[in-house]
Amino acid sequence: MTAPAPDQIPFDWDAFRASLSSFVVQFEWLFQILGIIIGAIVLRIALHFVIRRVVNRVVSGVKKRQNVDDTQSITASPLAAVRVVQRTRTLGSVLNNVVSVVIVIVALLLIVTAINTDIIGSFALITAALGAGLGFGAQNIVKDVLNGLFMVAEDQLGVGDVVDLGEAIGIVENVGIRVTQVRDIDGTLWFVRNGEILRVGNKSQGWARVIIDLPAPYHSDVEAVQATLLATANEMANSPQWRRKIIEKPEIWGLESISAEALVIRLVMKTRTADQWDVARELRFRLKKALDDTGVNLPALNRVVFDGQRETSQPVGDGALHGTAPVKTVPKDRSAT
């Protein structure tokens, strides 16, 4: 056997392991922080994946039971199915936000502890003072979070609902843990703090109602006009295009108001949520054609004011007209021609 050459010095594995152990011990806190950050990221991705998977399974199950391919088609399905989809997506959005916030808070606490295990105890008084200050300052944040959780748990609103929150009226696009996003008819996206929502008018739960208040000439045959209105509405309700959007048969509720110039007749129709506006537009068009065919001309009123559910009175020549629909019309003055 030949002896090793003088220039071939064997690698000292013991020294390498000792130096590596010393490096790990010296920067142990850094490795702990990296492990906490990586673990938090992986946990967040995994939990979001699980939540998204559960939401998709619930939505897919509803679509399969209703035999439709997309969620837009579910609007023609039973109302309970639509509500399940909307509420599931809302809960999924809120849970994703809650998971992210909790993971970030826990990760920050673990990182602080890894840097110095005694740091929390050393700054106990400072932490208490900061906590008291933040407690007063964060009252609105806590209020927003709690109110948002209660709104979702009580099914007050959901993603896709048409809601009236006071200042913001539109479609709910996202329900966060602190802020609800509502897009109005003009396309403006409103960010509404959950704690500032004092009332919720949800137009997407249960059913909706189309209300048509039609002024007819005072000397017209009321029964004949009502029969024409009802026949036209029933014809529309039985048509294949609108049958799925109309829940119950149309009804004539009778005379809403009487004046020297007009008789206001009310026609109502119960529809599915979010379809009342399309149904109302089509119904007005059909009623106009039907009245033209029967020779009934609407009265030339100087002023008609229908203000929601409140009865108002405005002078109209020698008399006054009362109404209950959100309509304001000022026809052309014929005396000027």
UniProtKB/TrEMBL annotation:
This is Mechanosensitive ion channel protein MscS. The lineage of its organism: Bacteria, Bacillati, Actinomycetota, Actinomycetes, Micrococcales. InterPro entries: LSM_dom_sf, MS_channel_C, MscS_beta-dom_sf, MscS_channel_2nd, MscS_channel_C_sf, YbiO_bact. Belongs to the MscS (TC 1.A.23) family. Residues 212-297 form the Mechanosensitive ion channel MscS C-terminal domain. Residues 140-202 form the Mechanosensitive ion channel MscS domain. The chain crosses the membrane at residues 29-47, 94-113, 119-142. It is found in: Cell membrane. It comes from the Bacteria. GO terms for cellular component: plasma membrane. One of its GO terms (molecular function) is mechanosensitive monoatomic ion channel activity. It is a multi-pass membrane protein. Keywords: Cell membrane, Membrane, Transmembrane, Transmembrane helix. The keyword Transmembrane helix applies. It comes from Marisediminicola antarctica. Pfam families: MS_channel_2nd (PF00924), MS_channel_3rd (PF21082). Residues 312-337 are annotated as: Disordered.
